[in-house]
Amino acid sequence: MTTVPTATGAVAGDELGVTLMHEHVFVLDDALERDLPHPEWDEEAAIEAATATFARLAALGVGTVVDLTVPGLGRDVARVRRVASRSPVAIVVATGWYVRGDLPPFFGTHGPGRLVGGADPLEALFVRDLEEGIAGTGVRAAVIKVVSDEPGLTPDVTRVLDAAAAAHVRTGAPIMTHSHAPTRGGLAQQEALAARGVDLGRVVIGHAGDSEDLDYLRMLADRGSFLGFDRFGMAHTQSDDARVRTLLALLERGYAESIVLSHDAAVFSRVTPPSWRARETPDWRMDHLATRIVPRLRAAGVDDATMRTMQVDNPRRILAGR
Predict the structure, then answer these.
(1) Ordered DSSP codes for 238-291
(2) Which of 23, 29, 89, 315 would bridge with 54, disulfide CB 3.0–4.6 Å?
(3) Is 215 annotated as a binding residue?
(4) Do residues 250 and 220 touch, judged by C-beta distance below 8 A?
(5) Is 22 annotated as a binding residue?
(6) What topology does CATH give the domain 3-320?
């Protein structure tokens, strides 16, 4: 792959520029919006806020944002495309399924060996999203998102990993994860994916930067995967001081080519709505790296070449396959 599909068409890998590798535009839930509407959600206002957010990012030098909102988090690619069509920043979208424990009941009856039977609908969905487009929009996913958290590899989490690995083997698409760093969850993800034929060099272990355990982080990187230092500003999971300290320690040990940077922020999220974020995590925004963290790294001696490696070169290697 030398080009990368985005919400508004393919972009050459060399044109991605500075890339935020783990963000969300809108995190919603269609059933909740129908039955229990959130008082802070206003679609048109959210579209305007997202448009302003991406204009701000472009002015700060960001070229691409990877939106890892997948089914289970209220993915609506048509809505994201409305933002992308007004944005100078390219938006890459994802396939996959967000589940920490149990999948929706439909999956309990559909698939090989189940009541209704048939092919695995998860694998079919992932491959269709990657090769044909998402939900009739024609917008193709570029990455596969998988999740495991504190409960570990539950049967349904494992089922998603199975489908993601199969889709990766068929399409070559990279896999990006949500992991639980306190329990060293990235190691179990690597073991499961590798056992299913996944090239660990095409895997980003998300939220690795929540950990200060250098032995754990080096094990993940030494197995070939990228480390997602992707929650800057997310103070309730780790302080920026700790994230910067750990990142600098890894850079001193030569791991720049194994690291990508981001925030895991959202323009709007039902899970942590704007009023809560403004009060509790005011730095948890997509401009935080550019305005606060990158200057701290440069002041600590991180040079331009290293910043480019983490923000431009590594994302290009992951997304464009080079």
Answers:
(1) --HHHHHHHHHHHHHTT-GGGEEE----EEEESSS-HHHHHHH-TT-STTHIII
(2) 89
(3) no
(4) no
(5) yes
(6) TIM Barrel (3.20.20)
